[in-house]
Design goal:
The protein is of the alpha+beta class. It has a single domain, classed as Electron Transport, Fmn-binding Protein, Chain A (Pnp Oxidase, Chain A, Roll), CATH 2.30.110. The chain has 5 helices and 9 strands, in the order αββββαβααβββαβ. A hairpin with a 2-residue loop joins strand 1 and strand 2. Flavin mononucleotide binds next to strand 2, strand 4 and helix 2.
């Protein structure tokens, strides 16, 4: 497994699709917060998901998830997948992306690279441990994100 990037811009500038479920029933959403690193001697991907997201249910109910990155010309599609909920409409069908099975999860044909992750843990971020200005800026009105850490079991290019 090999992947080289500028970790600080990979999520922030390119954005990604976070997908969970199986090919019969899955959901995806755009994310721009996340990271890559090492935990418990494993290569890991970390993502942060509000529990109001439909994708949150799929993350909780499945052992695997994928994080996939796209060429810049797909930014508009990612923007829609990050503003509409799969709870309300078939946004994936409307996006025109082609879903494909990927290990025990799902990604899209159009992805440049997909990280297949096995969920290791979920942990709610806790306001009491945050700097006060961060808590005010991000969680004044909504509950904090849940952090999911997944072992990267495959990288598909
Ligand atoms: C550029 C961008 C980045 C986003 N990053 C995140 C994120 O890291 N975590 C999160 O919970 N929501 C994030 N969102 C919001 C979700 O993608 C959005 O609420 C989406 O509609 C949820 O879809 P779902 O309800 O089908 O899961 C982001 C949206 C955009 C446009």
């Amino acid at each position: 497994m090999e992947f080289t990037t500028d970790v600080f811009s990979q999520y922030d500038k390119k954005w990604a699709l976070l997908t969970a479920g199986n090919i019969e029933k899955f959901n995806t959403m755009t994310i721009s917060w996340g990271g890559f690193g090492t935990l418990w001697n494993k290569p890991v991907a970390t993502v942060y998901v509000r529990n109001s997201r439909y994708t949150h249910e799929f993350l909780d109910n499945n052992e695997f998830f994928t994080v996939s990155f796209y060429p810049d010309e797909h930014k508009k599609i990612l923007s829609v997948l990050g503003s509409k909920s799969g709870r309300e409409m078939d946004k994936i069908h409307e996006s025109g992306l082609t879903a494909k099975e990927c290990g025990d999860s799902v990604t899209f044909e159009e992805a440049e690279v997909t990280f297949v992750c096995r969920k290791l843990m979920r942990q709610p971020l806790e306001i009491k441990y945050m700097l006060v200005d961060i808590a005010y800026q991000f969680y004044d009105r909504e509950a904090p994100h849940d952090m999911y850490i997944g072992e990267i079991v495959d990288i598909i290019k």
